[in-house]
Amino acid sequence: MAAAIAACLVVALAPSLVLRWQADYRTGFGETRDITLSDGSVVQLDSHSAIAVDIAGTHRDVRLLTGQAFFKVMPDKSKPFHVWTKTLQVTVTGTAFNVDSARDNPSVAVQQGSVNVDERQAGRHLASLVPGQRLTLRADRAELSTFSPSQAAAWRQGQLIADDLPISEVLTQLRRYTPGIIVLRDAKLGAQRVTGVYDLRKPQAALQAVLQPHGAKVTAYSPWLLVLSR
């Protein structure tokens, strides 16, 4: 077991070392941060998130390296503001929106104004979003959904709002608030869907609340290794 825990620590820490080198701004587990960029735009970083910023001349580019962030962009039609994840490109001139860089289901949600969303690798336009619309890129499709604009980034109020989401997607959010590794041993459990409001300030209690209705439990082998099973 000691060897397994040590291996988990290596897996958990290695990406953080890379982010230290790449990022201009980042947050740790359970930490959020407000950043005012040189053009006056404001970025709010969620827990365990990081960005690299390039604002100069006629361009305003931000790479969301990991995690998610809420952007309130200073209007400037002559200099579009771009947010890049590994899979998405978001283009705006002045608006407020949230971008989640989750590997399996990245998303963009708009609170104010409008944004254009393109898929980077395919180079195709996915959608133009207005307030109350969210685009989630899944393996086989781009999924559009609606929500209350005030909930575009509920994490800023310490909430995780799940509306008929697979447990695997809820875990993506909770992992940002939990140091170490969360292991889901049952793929069928990950596919189960949940609806609820969970407290991100108490991630282990939130985990229990997500799993309990499905007869699952959290086993803590150390502060760095949590295993979810039925």
UniProtKB/TrEMBL annotation:
The keyword Glycosyltransferase is assigned to this record: no
Residues spanning the signal sequence: 1-23
PANTHER family xrefs: PERIPLASMIC SIGNAL SENSOR AND SIGMA FACTOR ACTIVATOR FECR-RELATED, PROTEIN FECR
Domain FecR protein: 24-116
One GO MF term attached to the UniProt entry: kinase activity
InterPro entries (alphabetical): FecR, Ferrdict_sens_TM
Full protein name: Histidine kinase
Organism expressing this protein natively: Pseudomonas poae
Keyword set includes Signal: yes
